[in-house]
Every structure is written in structure tokens, then in C-alpha cells.
Design goal:
Number of helices: 6
Strand content: 25-35%
Number of strands: 17
Structural class: alpha+beta
Distance between the termini: 21 Å
Length: about 230
């Protein structure tokens, strides 16, 4: 499932993030890349333990915790602390797949990367190129969203970031361990949840089928969830 999630951050939050990132010290993005990814990765990144990364990461996690679309689609169990990258002057990230397991710096915690997320912090008109291209069974999909919007996709997907030829592409990226690790099962639950919400709000909210379908949803979640 490739899903845009709009308005994760407000205009004020985006402004705050951009101001903090403009004053921060950036490092070579390959510091967090695996062996295979390091050969394809050419960008800049904020150090994981940088104060701005921690502050802005907490802001993003707080916003996601209140975002119904994110919770319904990702069914998050653990979210990796958000990281931040910048592409400019021809930077790109060639075709790669994300590591299956990520360790949270400074802790013994490990997260299985079921889902990848990119939260755009620069508007598309600020830079040329920089499209995120995600491949699935239906082909390659280009993603370039407004600032404050996020794209969620299976971490098993091959993906790349095309070269940025003008301006700077600034974004946050992170991974989610879902309660339901299988993307097909997670997609079915999401579709069912959305259908229940539409029936409840738009047609006959008191129809007995709403209760029945809600029961089906939770019984499937109980069957498939790790937690």
C-alpha cells in the first residue's frame, strides 16, 4: 500500500522545523546506510543525536499520534525516531531497499521496518528533481508532495530519490514496526476500517451491519496482530 497522508504538520510546525534545520550542522548521509545502500546514497543528514533532530522528531511523533489516517493505515507498534535529510547540488539516492531491522541509537531497542515514511518539509516548487520513486507490482510511482505531507509505503519496496538539480529537498524519514507485519493483511484491515467509518458517518450509522463489520475488523486484528 502506497498511501499519502496529508497535513501531518501545520504551517507553523513546518516553519519551526525549517528554521531549526537551517541552523543545524549536516553530515554525510551514509553514516546511517547499510553496506548496499551506502554505495547508492549521496545526500546530507542530521546526526541522530543532534538536539534539533530529537526536538523535531518528538514534534512529528506527537502529531502522528493524533493522526487517525496514519494510525488506521500503519497500525503502529513502534516508530523509529525520525531522521532528517537534505538533497541539493545533484544529490540523489539510487535504487535500494531499506534494512529489515534498525537499532535505535543509544539503546538496545530494535525495530522491524515494516513501513517506510517520508515527510516532506520543502514545497515542490522550491527544488527541481528529488522525486521519491517507489516500485511495486504495478510499476514505479513518483512521489513529490507538499511540505507537511507524508508518504507511507512498504519497506520491502525498491525505491530511490532522483537527483536534485535546483534548490534543496528537505525531509524527515523513518520506519514503523506495525502490529500487523504482512502488508496484504494490513491493507485489508485499512480498507475495512475506512468502509466502516464511511457507513457510520454517511449512510446508516445505527445499522446492525456496522456493529457486525466492526466485530469482523477486531477479530481479524486479533488474529493477525503481534501485540
Amino acid at each position: 500500500m502506497l498511501l499519502p497522508i496529508p497535513n501531518v504538520l501545520t504551517f507553523e510546525q513546518i516553519t519551526q522545523a525549517r528554521q531549526a534545520l537551517e541552523q543545524a550542522d549536516w553530515v554525510d548521509g551514509r553514516v546511517t546506510a547499510g553496506h548496499q545502500s551506502a554505495r547508492a546514497k549521496d545526500n546530507q543528514q542530521l546526526a541522530e543525536d543532534h538536539p534539533a533532530a530529537r526536538q523535531l522528531g518528538d514534534m512529528i511523533l506527537s502529531s502522528l499520534g493524533q493522526n487517525a489516517l496514519f494510525i488506521s493505515s500503519a497500525l503502529p507498534l513502534h516508530v523509529f525516531p525520525p531522521l532528517f535529510n537534505r538533497y541539493q547540488g545533484g544529490h540523489s539516492f539510487g535504487v535500494h531497499v531499506d534494512n529489515a531491522i534498525r537499532q535505535v541509537q543509544g539503546s538496545g531497542r530494535r525495530i522491524r521496518t515494516d513501513l517506510s515514511a517520508t515527510l516532506f518539509l520543502a514545497d515542490p516548487l522550491e527544488y527541481d528533481g528529488g522525486e521519491l520513486v517507489v516500485e511495486d507490482t504495478y510499476g514505479a510511482h513518483e512521489v513529490k508532495l507538499p511540505a507537511g505531507h507524508m508518504i507511507l509505503y512498504p519497506a520491502t519496496s525498491l525505491h530511490q530519490v532522483r537527483p536534485v538539480t535546483r534548490g534543496a529537498r528537505v525531509a524527515s524519514f523513518f520506519w514503523i514496526q506495525s502490529m500487523v507485519r504482512d502488508d496484504g493483511q494490513r491493507t485489508l484491515l485499512f480498507d475495512l476500517d475506512i468502509a466502516i467509518q464511511r457507513i457510520s458517518s454517511e449512510t446508516t450509522p445505527n445499522h446492525p451491519s456496522v456493529l457486525q463489520l466492526t466485530g469482523v475488523y477486531h477479530n481479524l486484528l486479533r488474529r493477525w496482530a503481534d501485540a
